[in-house]
Amino acid sequence: MKWQRMVSWATLAISVFTLYLVVRKPARISTPLASPAVVAANAQSFQEKLGQLDQSRSTGDATSEVRINSAELSAAFAQSTGTTAAVNSGTGAAAPGATTSFELPGPAPDIKDYQVAMDGDIVRGQFLTQIAGKDVYVTLGGHLGAKDGYATFEATEAKIGDLSVPASLVNQALQKKLVEQRDQLKLPDNVKDLRIENGELVLVPK
What we know:
4 helices; three-stranded antiparallel sheet; alpha+beta; globular
């Protein structure tokens, strides 16, 4: 029937449009940095702030919170995972002399073009990975926190490519994955708590 054919064409059009959104590159969640030198400076600043946590612990000062901005956190993630584009430098090459003592536990994930941004009390991560053999951008946003000595993350927004998907669906699978990798979420010995506040990562020393 004619109406059945119309429904079929409409379904096909929706499927094609959805596929287009999935493979489409979304808008960046952070602004590219100017040069590798800026990236190196951010990585160095991150390392120095981690050192402040050790100093606070040695002096018994548990009130000296350490605040880390998006650029510093991006540099740390990029170097720990080997995803140089994640530093938002736009260069595709690691900044010379940039080092950091921060490392993600476990094997480095197969991701590229990793970005981190913080806004208010929300942290967002965006990365390029492969889904069904295709390069696809994934963007996750949510609340970062800590409980019983372990980091926690509750997703409040999610996108695959440029297509928004229900955060509740993503969060269910995400929480299951976090439980499986709980040991990797253990906070460092010198960190009592963490949170996102005013667009910064706040680390509370023990």
